[in-house]
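2024-03-11 09:14:02 INFO worker-7 job=invfold-0412 stage=load source=structure_tokens
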């Protein structure tokens, strides 16, 4: 039995880390990961501990897939930070045709995928989904556009499709998960039996925030993990890439043209999907980080689907709004809140990294990582 299979099938509490998509805003995520890693290193007196040592399943969508794969092969939070500070400016370069005229994404993705492919090749080389260098459970969320189906590529050795998928290059699967329509062209992946699939960003599905999907992957009988549920059995840590209240004037909405709706509907659906994830996971748990869903249902602090918490759930995210940034002690960023929301502004990556680090110090508490999720503790201990 492989070390990974032994770990995934072992008894005792299990820990899941879920990472949102969000383009260059993934830099926000890293500050939270560094804070979690620092807490865990101190708790277990292991200065070299990395998040793959603690989390039994790490998954992500789009930019979260890059981070998830990097963590799963044993990179530290600082190493992932170096990736983000390195690659953003090169990846988000405007595509030009042979005459040097920008295509504006009308026929193809706005950005060439070649810099992204090159960088992913540097980070992941020829490592595969089933490679022994992947130290923990990994799930990369993609969308197969030619069949309109969500594909969570995971590395559990007993998975139904693991034999067919284990040889797929990590860099190809991650590239598929980051192929956001209008930003990058789709990624073609050989899916076996002489067939190919056209894959795009997993954020086009309901799972730009992949936390609920990872809970299902970890617990449904159709997947091979089949981990037991329960507040003391399952920890799910979810990290976002920034959010803000969506608002437009009544006059603007009523006067919107067809092309205005075409450009705004995808963001509306993605925002709804994110809040549905949040609602369901708060409904399933007694979360110390719960947020008000809306003015009617509130934070669901006394609502438990099934009558009892099915997991321990932690959600870390930051409001990219002027008031919230000022309250964080970062008034200099407040007037730039709208600019910081843009997914492809690579020049913001250092500022986003700073925001994530400051927010993490206030939001991520040592007491959130309760002792019954100690990796060496067994159920009932």
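2024-03-11 09:14:09 INFO worker-7 stage=emit residues=381
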């Amino acid at each position: 039995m492989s070390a990974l299979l032994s770990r995934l099938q072992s008894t005792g509490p299990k820990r899941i880390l879920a990472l949102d998509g969000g383009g260059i805003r993934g830099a926000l995520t890293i500050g939270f990961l560094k804070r979690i890693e620092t807490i865990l290193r101190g708790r277990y007196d292991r200065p070299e501990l990395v998040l793959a040592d603690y989390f039994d399943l790490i998954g992500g969508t789009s930019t979260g897939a890059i981070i998830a794969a990097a963590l799963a092969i044993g990179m530290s939070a600082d190493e992932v930070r170096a990736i983000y500070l390195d690659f953003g400016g090169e990846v988000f370069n405007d595509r030009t045709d042979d005459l040097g005229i920008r295509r504006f994404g009308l026929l193809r993705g706005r950005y060439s995928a070649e810099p992204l492919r090159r960088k992913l090749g540097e980070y992941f080389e020829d490592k595969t989904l089933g490679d022994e260098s992947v130290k923990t459970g990994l799930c990369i969320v993609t969308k197969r556009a030619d069949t309109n189906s969500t594909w969570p590529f995971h590395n559990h050795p007993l998975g139904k499709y693991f034999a067919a998928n284990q040889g797929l290059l990590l860099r190809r699967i991650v590239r598929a998960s980051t192929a956001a329509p209008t930003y990058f062209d789709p990624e073609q992946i050989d899916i076996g039996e002489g067939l190919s699939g056209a894959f795009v960003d997993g954020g086009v599905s309901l799972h730009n925030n992949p936390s609920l999907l990872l809970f299902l992957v970890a617990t449904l009988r159709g997947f091979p993990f089949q981990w037991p549920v329960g507040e003391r059995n399952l920890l799910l840590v979810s990290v976002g890439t920034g959010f803000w209240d969506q608002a437009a004037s009544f006059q603007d909405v009523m006067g919107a043209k067809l092309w205005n709706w075409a450009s705004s509907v995808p963001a509306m659906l993605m925002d709804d999907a994110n809040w549905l994830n949040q609602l369901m996971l708060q409904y399933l748990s007694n979360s110390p980080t719960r947020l008000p869903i809306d003015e009617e249902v509130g934070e669901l602090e006394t609502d438990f689907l099934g009558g009892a918490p099915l997991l321990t759930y932690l959600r870390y995210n930051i409001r990219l709004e002027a008031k919230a940034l000022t309250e964080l002690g970062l008034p200099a960023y407040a007037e730039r809140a709208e600019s910081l929301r843009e997914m492809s502004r690579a020049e913001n990556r250092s500022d986003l990294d700073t925001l994530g680090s400051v927010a993490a110090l206030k939001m991520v508490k040592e007491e959130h990582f309760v002792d019954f999720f100690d990796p060496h503790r067994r159920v009932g201990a």
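2024-03-11 09:14:09 INFO worker-7 stage=report msg="The beta strands are 14-19, 57-61, 137-144, 149-154, 187-192, 195-201, 234-239, 312-316."
2024-03-11 09:14:10 INFO worker-7 job finished
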